[in-house]
Amino acid sequence: MAQIEVKKLNLSYGDFHALIDIDLSIETRMITAMIGPSGCGKSTLLRVFNRMNDLIEGVNITGQVLIEGNDILNHKADLIVLRKEVGMVFQRPNPFPLSIYDNITFGPRVHGTKNKKILDEIVRTSLEDVLLWDELKDKLHRSALRLSLEQQQRLCIARLTAVKPKILLMDEPCSALDPVATQNIEELFNKLKNEYTIVIVTHNMQQAARISQRAGFMLLGELVEFGDTRRIFTAPADKRTEDYITGRFG
Amino acid sequence: MTRDKRNQRIREFFIEKTISASGIASVVIVVLIFVFLLKDGLSLFKIESIQDFLSGKLWYPISDPPKFGILPLILGSIVVTAGATAISVPIGVASAIYIAEVSSPRIKEYLKAGVELLAAIPSVVLGFIGVVTLVPFVKQFFNLPTGLTAFSGSIMLAFMAMPTIVSIAEDALTAVPRSYREGALALGATKWQTIYKVTVPSAASGIVAAVMLGVGRVIGETMAVMMITGNAAVIPKSIFQPVRTLTATIAAEMGETVRGSDHFYALFAIGIVLFLITFFINMIADLYLHREKR
After folding, report:
1. Chain B contact for A79 (CB, 8 A cutoff)
2. Is B182 on the interface with A (CB under 8 A)?
3. What is the mean pLDDT of chain A?
4. A&B contacts, CB < 8 Å
């Protein structure tokens, strides 16, 4: 079943046409990877799904993006509800300069959970989701900035699962991490896909090949090709995809 | 060729020495000021104990025998400063938040220029405006025998602390990484929740420093308080009474003392007290400004 349906999506910043006629459907509980060279529009596309582009002035979006049947581009769409359902992990881990506990409870508190017992339980389950509970259970009131980068990125994911979203958007989540940490995070994605729909943007093709079930190749604002990851990497239909995957450019 | 090179080396040498001499000079001057302050100020304690000086309730420097108790002056300074802080901190921090987080770029430019202009008004002008407008208003509004009160001084000084607080707090808020805000918004926080749960706590040490520097400015201010607070060296029972601050005492009486008299030394001793107060406040501000992230 498709969880995100994109129809004829166009986006421009001023004169710059960043996304051109994108059509795409993203399926539930799978990892979908968007690949392509820098500046191809993959991060911009990701930021359409939780409307983070709204923060930039002069953005013009047309077309339709349906998440579970609701058009999120509709100006009546409730951004707060949308962003609770569709969480985002950023390139560099960005824990708040607060304690680990406060980082995780930030989302639930914002959405109205006040009961200390429930919050404690959320902290526990969220940290268990990202396999940090055993490491951190005695240090919950330490500053999150003292964690390693990998732990910080895990914490940022735990901060999302704490509000029980349906979709996780990952914007190059491993680009600040070393190979070992990257591998650990990728294993975590594999576990998370049983519960969440994951859309990941990466310029690392091997990563896309390793972890995703669906993949899309973007170039200069266009979605060149989209489909089963294995097929994209073994038998690309478009010459440009083949050239990129075989390393002829990019 | 070689002569050119030698000339160049000599020039470099002089430039370098001039610059380092200027750097050292500023430190030497501060030390000298402190030494002279101590030398004259400490002379008072040959005739008056530190205990009596700090906790004496009477300041009658020219009666016979003179009384050099500066408790009323310390309390005067504290009352005026506390009042000014209570007024300027909420307004100053709120306007810093507005400028840094809410306003459009165009309005931001106007507001920042306005704040800088406020900082540029000489304190004697502010004091004069206070005497002409605020003092009669306070007298009438609260039905007081005089409008020259600690309260009026607090309001006027709040205006003087505001530019410092606003511009430094605004810098601190602007320096909060964009990624913190994005992280909060991406979790579904509203703009206001993002500001008060993430942005402001992240900038907390900078905001505290801004407040301390604002307070430092208020304590050291002389002209405006002398004109507005009524200059009665008595222990204030409420903020609606005239008070006299440490600074105003020095400014008002220094011209009338005989050099080398006990009164003269007492004013220097007040200077030491002021110096210590501002020193500690600036030190706290500095500590927060350069505090490492926990």
Report:
1. yes
2. yes
3. 92
4. 73
pLDDT, tens digit, for every residue of B72-97?
Answer: 999 999 999 999 999 999 999 999 99
A83 vs B: CB within 8 A: yes
Contact B218, B284 (CB under 8 A): no
In a domain, A177, yes or no: yes
Q: Which of B280, B274, B253 is nearest to B76 (CA)?
A: B274
Q: Assign residue A241 the CATH number of its domain.
A: 3.40.50.300
B193 touches chain A (CB under 8 A): yes
- Please tell me the total count of domains within chain A: 1
A137 reaches B (C-beta below 8 A): no
Using CA atoms, how far apart are residues B197 and B201, in angstroms rounded to an integer? 6
What residues make up the domain containing A81?
2-245
How does residue A56 score in pLDDT terms, banded at 50, 70 and 90?
confident
Say what the ipTM of the complex is: 0.88
CA distance B9 to B6: 5
pLDDT in tens, A114-139: 999 999 999 999 999 898 999 999 99
DSSP label at B230?
A: B
Q: Does A52 touch chain B (CB under 8 A)?
A: yes
Q: Find the residue in B nearest to A49 (Cα).
A: B186
Does B187 contact A84 at a Cβ distance shorter than 8 Å?
A: yes
Indicate if the pLDDT at residue B292 is higher than 80.
no
Confidence at A3, pLDDT banded by 50, 70, 90: confident
Minimal Cβ distance to A92: which of B179, B189, B294? B179
Superfamily of structural domain B59-289: MetI-like (1.10.3720.10)
Closest Cβ opposite residue A159 in set B187, B202, B294? B187
The whole-angstrom separation of Cα B130 and Cα B228 is 7
Contact A83 B177 (CB under 8 A): no
Of A83, A98, A146, which is closest to B187 when you measure between CB atoms?
A83
Specify if A91 maps to a domain: yes
Report the amino acid identity of residue A239. K
Residues of B in contact with A95 (CB under 8 A): 183
Domain membership flag for residue A250: no
CB atoms within 10 A of CB B2: 6
Residue B180 near residue B204 (C-beta atoms within 8 A): no
Q: Please confirm whether the linkage preceding B65 is cis (ω < 30° from 0).
A: yes
Phi and psi at residue A130, in whole multiples of 5°?
-105, 15
Q: Is B108 exposed, middle or buried (0-12, 13-18, 19+ CB in 10 A)?
A: middle
- CA-to-CA distance for B130 and B134, rounded, in angstroms? 5
Place of tokens 């998370």: A192
